[in-house]
Design a protein that fits this description.
Blueprint: E1 4-8, H1 34-44, E2 48-51, H2 62-70, E3 75-79, E4 101-107, H3 118-121, H4 124-131, E5 135-138, H5 144-153, E6 159-161, H6 172-175, H7 179-184, E7 191-196, H8 212-222, E8 227-230, H9 240-248, H10 256-270
Parallel strand pairs: 1-2, 2-3, 3-4, 4-5, 5-6, 6-7, 7-8
Helix pairs in contact: 1-9
């Protein structure tokens, strides 16, 4: 079974040549680069990783693209762009021509109104749809309705919601308080969901059984072809291997065929990342 992580951040040290965004706080105190990631992948049995440049790098994608250049079979990138910049207009036509660049990631958690603001996003949704550039979108569950509107207007745009659209810092039942808002968007065939970073939303120890029922509801709504396992590795409170096995060994309602899709096959298909 091919195991593909839908989200890991890597970053370099904060230097004058490469300053972090003001106020940025990385998940770990030390830089975490491609070599450290490869070691973790080998220990956990993870074959491939989609690198998402962190917010501390603003819209720089170079570190992630360098990792792809060094290890093209193991890494790919969902990059970042600033829609407010004039040079972003028309940039998506050749976005995937960058080796290893699969799509875009937008995090609207701190500015959810921007998602549906045409003055901010401009023609970006339409450009991404026309260029067949898939997008990761970070929102909380109450804002999924805004994503639904985008998905309805752009039915050929492939959208993947980060972390089941759970609010950062929320735990246990409270994290899934608005799950119906997430399940409602399952009617859009162009929307999928990362079942990622699961350990961070539970106060219980491994295997976080208090959240399994919620994962089952998301599975029932979207099906295994639109669910994408991921870790958000540098935020994990467990081992990388445990983040894998919580799905592969602890959820008996997932069949072998389900796991082939959820653990990597479906993501590679959605992002058009050939095996």
């Amino acid at each position: 079974m091919l195991i593909v992580d839908s989200q890991v951040h890597i970053w370099a040290a904060n230097t004058p040549e490469r300053p972090w965004a003001e106020g940025a706080k990385p998940h770990r105190p030390q830089p975490f680069g491609k070599n450290e990631l490869l070691q973790e992948m080998q220990a956990a049995g993870v074959d491939r990783v989609v690198i998402v440049p962190p917010s501390l790098d603003r819209t720089r994608n170079d570190l992630a693209l360098d990792a792809v250049q060094s290890h093209p079979g193991q890494f790919a990138v969902m990059g970042k762009i600033n829609p407010a910049l004039p040079e972003s207009l028309g940039a998506l036509a050749n976005w995937r021509a960058q080796p290893g660049m699969l799509g875009l990631r937008f995090n609207f958690k701190k500015n959810m109104d921007r998602l549906s603001n045409p003055e901010y996003m401009g023609c970006l949704w339409a450009e991404a749809e026309a260029a067949r550039v898939p997008v990761y979108i970070g929102v909380d569950q109450p804002a999924v309705s805004l994503v639904d509107a985008v998905a309805a207007r752009h039915p050929q745009l492939r959208i993947i919601l980060d972390h089941m659209a759970l609010a950062s810092g929320a735990k246990d039942d409270e994290a899934f308080r608005d799950i119906e808002m997430l399940l409602a968007i399952a009617k859009r065939p162009n929307v999928g969901v990362k079942v990622s970073a699961l350990p961070g939303y539970s106060t219980e120890p491994y295997p976080y059984r208090n959240l399994h029922g919620y994962v089952k509801r998301v599975y029932d709504a979207f099906g295994p072809g639109r669910l994408f396992w991921g870790s958000d590795l540098t935020r994990l409170k467990c081992t990388y291997r445990q983040c894998v096995t919580v799905f592969t060994e602890e959820m008996p309602w997932l069949t072998a065929d389900d796991l082939e899709l959820i653990m990597g096959g479906a993501l590679c298909d959605w992002l058009d990342w050939p095996a």
